[in-house]
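Practice problem: predict the structure.
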Amino acid sequence: MKKFIYATTLLLALATVKIHAQTFMDRVHFEFSAGTGIANKGIKPVDFSFRSQVEFVSIAYLFVTAEDNISLYKNEGVKTYYNGVSIGGGLGVKLLNSVKSIHALDIRAKALSSVGCPSWKRSSYDVSLAWYLKSYRFSPVVELGYRFVDSHTQGIDNCGNVFLSIGFRY
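Answer:
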């Protein structure tokens, strides 16, 4: 009975998805953004991000992202920072896809992990809302969300913060 319920739910969900005849390049988008978050535990994040996304159905897309993470803090009264690069990916779902408007609102979830030899080894997990203009090829993107940082460096605690990023989408 469980298999029947799962199959029925899947078929009903797929019936709501529209697939448009688009080329692959019409379904690929790129984003560049810069963001910052609210300081938590004395650390203020600043991130520069590049994202490439591919729509696999009309209401959802997968993306890969690379970020340069700079974390500002004070050490004995002297301003300093941690620096590192994180790579990861995630899933985006379009919330205003069927509305006849130039505005788009997506919900995104992503996971990142530091690579190389950063001064702060960490994994981070984000959930955010992203607004952009869907009718223009170049459009601004504003993203507001929450990030949890799981620290893998001894002496630095896990933390979370609200962040805002602004960028461009192509």
